[in-house]
Amino acid sequence: MSGRPANLPKFSDLPLNKDDPPYSAWGLYGKDDQLGFLNRQTNETVKEAAKEIQSGVRFFKSKSSRDPRE
């Protein structure tokens, strides 16, 4: 994987909204979008990402914990 997704807008071109958190670009994929950057997943990017798996350990980013093992 190249490390940086292709075709991303420059920061200065992001659809920033004054009511959103600072430096966020929640409007990048449309006003009603619920997926955010997950919109960029394709079968090919998932296949490439799977090659990076080394231990199989999983954690959930939605859980509020300092230690993902808790």
TrEMBL record:
This is Uncharacterized protein. It comes from Coccidioides immitis RMSCC 3703. The lineage of its organism: Eukaryota, Fungi, Dikarya, Ascomycota, Pezizomycotina.
